[in-house]
Specification:
The structure holds two protein chains of two kinds. Chain A folds into two domains: about 240 residues, no CATH class; about 110 residues, abc type-2 transporter like domain (abc type-2 transporter like fold, 3-Layer(aba) Sandwich). In chain A, about 70% of the residues lie in helices and about 10% in strands. The longest helix of chain A has about 30 residues. Chain A starts with a helix and ends with a helix. The mean pLDDT of chain A is about 85. By secondary structure, chain B is α/β, with parallel strands linked by helices. Chain B folds into two domains: about 240 residues, no CATH class; about 110 residues, abc type-2 transporter like fold. The longest helix of chain B is centred in the middle third of the chain and has 32 residues. The radius of gyration of chain B is 29 Å and the shape is elongated. The mean pLDDT of chain B is about 85. Classes of the chains: A alpha/beta, B alpha/beta. Chains A and B meet through helix 2, helix 4, strand 4, helix 6 and strand 5 of A and helix 2, helix 4, helix 5, strand 4 and helix 6 of B.
């Protein structure tokens, strides 16, 4: 049995590595995608194009504007003379944020009344808009608080010492600089593996079927189980190789920390690869041409990635979709990836994810093998 | 070019598409699936994030503040814990996104005056959620703090405004900050990349692989007739898909549509020519179906996803990547889509995007024709 499988695997490896283009596809696209993703995928906002209209021309209004000028989040590009100009710039997309301070701002502040700051945000990108609005509130709030303290210490110095103030000390754990890259890169490792292993496996088997070599192999003494094993093992190894390759780019190029145990990640990767091989085989049993296999694979891959929490928290999805995410093996693998990379947690925390992947993997593989037998008859 | 031969070629292609139910399914169901997938699955509207509370003080005042968190829709106080260990564990295994720690002397200091520090431990693995979460928390605490101050000063005979600067934010174009309105218009570009490049590159690579392309060439049909005959049915399908996707977006997801429908059709037609030409070009260059489909995804789907401004703002990318986006046709198309849907930009202003798109369409069509002639020669 081992001898037969060895021969079969040698054939398989030769077949995959023979073609220059296929060789390239195993290495090129994963690295290119990793690099583009690593640089392009960010929800952070920096230097948002901002324009200002100041109708008040007071010390206070200038102070407040200077807080925005010195903030890394906003790039105050121009001081405008009227509000119409401001709306035009936002309409054209030349500015994302517009601040407007009306006449009477300083007077209201000095008297202890509420002084309004008008803000217009281009919310075409709702996420950036939300975050920018948050920063604006913080900056304005910070200024207001200091102004208040100033006022108290000028008018009632004895009270300034004792007035209570509550401060929030925020500690962003696991990702102290709030870097999007740290969040995305472990996720990319997972989703690239999905694409690569599913398509490779599905294609590998269907190709034989389409060309007719599957029948040729089946008339040899090799048994179906041996055939499946020796067909998938090389893809398993290739998958593991690609995971390591992309992970290396993440660690050495993008400097994402790895805080957990390597063995935990390895175990997670192995279980995850088993799931992906199962999906790939399953697709191959329901497809008779490569085109069908590719199209079916695409149908599998998109939901697997979108429902995994890859870029968007699962908790924001509608409830019925949240249930569906439990069927996505990537959902569990992402927890393992982020757990080992950023949180540095071990099996005592990640065992439910491991168990889920093991269960899904065995289930998928069994169904695939049973179906495969059938598709041979 | 003979219209009759072109017609026959196109009819052959249509018959071929109709005969393969799965390809037909992808063409018909794909737009719906992608729009629904992204419409529901991709959301950043955070709600009900699980928060753990560790109240060391346990006083009336500390409970008061905690109640404010409870009443916000963004937080969901999932549990009250008794020590740091439980808090750490909950953050580690992901059952809490944030832990709030109220200090021992909270109520004491509130009476005596002086600064008080509240701690917020935030799981920042997902930097975006963490950012939004910290913003809200900061807001709640700031508001409470200024109320406490005002109360304190009032008792001592000094009037004080609780919120000296009222930030009045207006979010234009997407007033309710709906993620779906931000994301769905761009999904059209993804749909077309799949239909146009991925599917056509597969079908045409198949003809090469099977040798049927040579058979076609030996007939009196000219090269351009073959090319156009193959692409016209996909063009019609792609336009149909655009309309279907737009209708789902407008009527199911209630994405506002404020621009001209004609501009939508014109820009979609141009982008469709771009992706069809690319798909054709790739299938001429790449040998197998596997290589062709992978390259098609890598050169059309991936840039449409990452470098078009679909999800990630281009102005937040590194400068080099920003330059690269200028040669990504999807960039112009997505920009047109977002402006037509959300901003209602008049068509005259859209030329800045429509002209580059048209140039790409012409260039790539010429390139595809040339390479096809060359391969035949």
């Amino acid at each position: 049995m081992l001898a037969r499988m060895k021969q079969m695997m040698i054939k398989e490896v030769i077949q995959v590595l023979r073609d220059k283009r296929t060789r390239f596809i195993l290495i090129g696209p994963p690295i290119i995608q990793m690099l583009v993703f690593g640089y392009a995928a960010t929800f952070e906002i920096r230097h948002v194009a901002t324009v200002v209209v100041d109708y008040d021309h007071s010390q206070e209004s200038r102070d407040l504007i200077s807080r925005f000028t010195s903030s890394p989040y906003f790039a105050v590009q121009r001081q405008l003379n009227n509000a119409a100009e401001l709306s035009n710039l936002i309409d054209d997309g030349q500015a994302t944020v517009g601040l407007q301070i009306n006449a009477g701002f300083a007077q209201a502040l000095r008297k202890g009344h509420a002084a309004p700051l008008q803000v217009i945000v281009d919310a075409t990108n709702s996420n950036s808009a939300l975050i920018a609005a948050g920063y604006i509130t913080q900056i304005a709030g910070g200024y207001a608080e200091e102004y208040q303290q100033d006022r108290i210490s000028r008018t009632a110095p004895q009270l300034a010492q004792v007035v209570p103030s509550i401060e929030l000390e925020q500690r962003p754990w696991y990702n102290p600089n709030l870097s999007s890259r740290w969040f995305f890169i472990p996720g990319i490792i997972g989703s690239l593996t999905v694409v690569l292993v599913i398509t490779l496996t599905a294609f590998g088997v269907v190709r034989e079927r389409e060309i007719g070599t599957l029948e040729q192999i089946m008339v040899t003494p090799i048994r179906p189980a041996e055939f499946i094993l020796s067909k998938t093992l090389p893809f398993f190894v290739i998958g593991l190789f690609d995971v390591s390759l992309i992970a290396a780019v993440g660690s050495f190029w993008f400097q994402v920390p790895f805080r957990g145990h390597f063995s935990v990640l390895l175990l997670g990767s192995v279980l995850f690869l088993v799931c992906m091989l199962g999906v790939g085989l399953l697709i191959s049993t329901v497809s008779s041409t490569q085109q069908q296999a590719m199209v079916t694979a695409f149908f599998f891959i998109m939901p697997t990635i979108v429902f995994s929490g890859f870029g968007f928290p699962i908790s924001t999805m509608p409830q019925w979709l949240q249930y569906m995410t439990y069927a996505s093996p990537l959902r569990y693998f992402l927890v393992v990836l982020r757990g080992t990379y950023l949180k540095g947690v071990g099996l005592d925390i990640l065992w439910p994810q491991m168990a889920a992947m093991a269960g899904l993997g065995v289930g998928l593989l069994t169904i695939a093998i049973l179906r495969f037998h059938k598709s041979l008859d | 070019m003979s219209w009759r031969r072109l017609w026959v070629m196109a009819r052959k292609e249509v018959v071929q598409i109709l005969r393969d139910p799965r390809s037909l399914a992808i063409v018909i169901v794909m737009p719906a699936i992608l729009v629904i997938l992204f419409g529901y699955g991709v959301s950043l509207d955070l709600k009900g994030l699980p928060v753990y509370v560790y109240d060391q003080d346990g006083s009336q005042q500390s409970q008061d503040l905690l109640k404010r968190f409870q009443s916000s829709e963004y937080f969901h106080v999932a549990r009250v814990v008794k020590n740091y260990r439980e808090l750490t564990r909950a953050l580690d295994d992901g059952s809490a996104k944030m832990g709030i720690v109220m200090p021992w002397d909270f109520s004491e200091k509130l009476g005596a005056g002086g600064p008080i520090q509240i701690q917020a431990l935030v799981d920042a693995t997902d930097d975006n959620s963490a950012n939004v979460l910290m913003g809200y928390t900061q807001g709640v605490v700031q508001e409470y703090s200024s109320e406490v101050q005002a109360e304190f000063l009032r008792h001592r005979g000094m009037a004080m405004q609780t919120a000296p600067i009222g930030v009045e934010t207006r979010t234009w174009y997407n007033e309710d900050l709906e993620s779906s309105a931000f994301i769905i218009p761009g999904v059209l570009a993804l749909v077309m990349s799949v239909i146009g490049a991925f599917l056509t590159s597969l079908t045409i690579a198949r003809e090469w692989e099977r040798g049927t392309m040579e058979q076609l060439i030996s007939t009196p049909v000219s090269a351009s007739e073959i090319m156009f005959g193959k692409l016209v049915p996909y063009f019609v399908l792609g336009m149909g898909d655009t309309i279907v996707s737009a209708l789902i977006a407008i009527y199911w997801f209630k994405v506002p549509f404020r621009g001209s429908f004609l501009a939508l059709l014109a820009s979609s037609a141009m982008f469709l020519v771009v992706v069809l030409a690319m798909g054709f070009f790739i299938s001429v260059l790449a040998k197998g179906q596997f290589a062709a489909s992978q390259i098609a995804l890598l050169t059309t789907f991936l840039p449409a996803f990452l470098l078009s401004g679909f999800l990630f703002s281009i102005d937040q990318m590194p400068t080099v990547l920003q330059w690269i986006t200028h040669i990504v046709p999807a960039r112009y198309y997505v920009s047109v889509l977002k402006r037509i849907f959300l901003k209602g930009t008049p068509t005259a202003v859209l030329y800045g995007d429509l002209v580059p798109l048209a140039i790409f369409a012409v260039l790539l069509a010429v390139l595809a024709t040339r390479s096809f002639h060359k391969r035949l020669a």
